[in-house]
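User: Fold this; tokens only.

Assistant: Input:
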Amino acid sequence: MAITFPLPFPAGAGFLEGEFSLGEVQAVNTLRSGAVQAMELGDSIWSGRFVTSLCDARQRGRWQAWKAALNGSIGTFLAYDPDKQYPLAYGAGVLALTRFGGGAFDGNATLAAWTATTLQITGLPAAYQAADGDMVSFPWNGGKALHMIVGDTAASAGGVLDVMVVPPVRTSPAPSGGAAVALVKPSCLMRLRPGSFSAPTSRARRSVSFEGVQVP
């Protein structure tokens, strides 16, 4: 069976700590007056530092095989913020909600409309609560767009949610209307940062650590 990309994290992956951050590509100049001038030079991209739960030899082997399958920094993987696998207002309990119109909510909704700074998402549970800092993702240009919600917002009684997001929504090419929006484990495509993967051999349980950077 062929290896296909992007790879998910190994089954049962858990994380002790890490950092998921949005890096701005900017040029900044401070004038003698103290005023600051800034210019955006490119799209903002996500980067991540991941430290897994303590691993025994078998679990460590899964991560080592995952890294080998990536072929260094050539292959891509699906990365999500370990601290925000689920919406902040619900945790894993979000999967016990009922979608507006009936049926269990599986963590996915529908992209209905967008602007450079906003998304309209439909197909949510009635009065769904989106929290400041929640993440959402959807397919874009053969990859995945990942955005953070800014501001606590509630969906309508009909499960329609309008939210502000960062970074700006890329509109060239435009996102596909009707695309699936992930609110559980929202992810983006990343590559390993060269030299960052560490899986030390030890009789004691040790963590595996690595860093990744988004593929624009």
